[in-house]
Design brief:
Helices cover about 0% and strands about 55% of the residues. It is built from no helices and eleven strands. Strands 2, 4, 5, 6, 9, 10 and 11 form a seven-stranded mixed sheet that branches. A four-stranded antiparallel sheet has the order 1-3-8-7, with no helix packed on it. It is globular.
Amino acid sequence: QVQLVESGGGLVQPGGSLRLSCTASGSIFASYAWGWYRQAPGKQREMVAITLNGGSTNYADSVKGRFTISRDNGKNTVYLDMSSLNVEDTAVYYCNVKQTRGPDYWGQGTQVTVSS
């Protein structure tokens, strides 16, 4: 059974930085994309950043230039480096792995709060 475990969330002041990590326990054999989503209170879950197996990445317009997604295949880990954080980035952040066949894997979520 594959589990995605996120870490790195917390409270940060506006303008600050955080690094989120997501490690998969167990082997994922048929994935084609790893990514991060977020859900703020009262809002729908949205894609933040995604990285495909070929190395290409895609970002939500709201985070371009501030967030960077990266992946360490040897560690089965995906990272999200976040900088210049603002209050609108406050949300629960979820790790996601998409498979070529079968349902997506989701982490349990990690809270990011940006507040002074």
